[in-house]
Amino acid sequence: MRQPVPRAPARAAVEARAAAAAMSAFASLQVDSALSYLIAFVIPALDAIFPVLPSESAIIALGVATAGTVDPRIALLVGCAAVGAFVGDNLGYLLGRRFGPAVQRRFFATPKGERARAWAERSLDRFGLPLIIVCRFIPGGRTAVTLTCGLTGYPRRRFAAATAVAAVTWALYAFFIGRLGGQAFEDNPWAGLVIAFGASIAISALIEGVRRLLAGRRRRASAGNAVSADYSNGAGDGDTRVRSR
């Protein structure tokens, strides 16, 4: 019988240091760390304007890191994330409202940007407040919708109410999906982080898939109605010509 080959001491030492570094990184994101609250507020506040900032990933990571505690300050951490998200949404609205031409050039000048704004305007006309809430879970939707609300002069009070609901819902969702992942893999927080990220991506993909499906159905229905209208108009013209004879 072959005996298992022991791992080289150097490799074992490297793996041990990597594991220690990982645990140290998560240990720094606890409820007693000012860094945790800073991350929870600042990144969601800025990613409405700088979409490259990983706000959802940051809040999920905080959920994973604090999965082993029931400290009541967790509520404060979630509250910071919600307030940061609310501030970011309303910052986007303010920029669109006060600096419309500059925002148009910066975000909507390209063909892709023009399509994003056109989608946001159509969706706001059709859905209103529910869109402002749901756009937080649509990839790229938050920036397009918040800036467009400012550009088009969407009622400020209604916008603020919708973004308050959206911010609380999103903060709870992101934090607790991370917390579930962290609790499932309490001894391996990186695995919990990967599982939580995967679940978040799957949920976002599902929402985007449903949105595209509904949009496709609406386009087909509109096309069908247009064809029916053209046919009716043509038939009417034919009847008129027959009667005139």
Structural write-up:
This protein has ten helices and no strands. With 245 residues, it is an all-alpha fold. The protein has a domain of 169 residues. The termini are far apart. The relative contact order is 0.11. The model has no long low-confidence stretch (mean pLDDT 80).
In short:
The protein has a domain at 28-185 and 203-213. 80% of the residues lie in helices and 0% in strands. It has helices spanning 9-27, 34-46, 55-65, 73-98, 100-107, 111-127, 129-134, 141-152, 156-184, 189-244.
Task: Please supply descriptive tags for the structure shown above.
245 residues; 10 helices; 80% helix
Mean pLDDT: 80
Extended strand count: 0
Which H/E pattern describes the elements? HHHHHHHHHH
- State the major sheet: none
Globally, the shape reads globular
- Which value, in Å, is the CA radius of gyration? 25 Å
Low-confidence runs: none
* Alpha plus pi helix count: 10
Please report which band the strand proportion falls in: under 5%, 5-15%, 15-25%, 25-35%, 35-45% or over 45%.
under 5%
Distance between the termini: 103 Å
Instruction: Name the structural class.
Output: mainly alpha
Helix content: over 70%
Outline the secondary-structure elements.
Blueprint: H1 9-27, H2 34-46, H3 55-65, H4 73-98, H5 100-107, H6 111-127, H7 129-134, H8 141-152, H9 156-184, H10 189-244
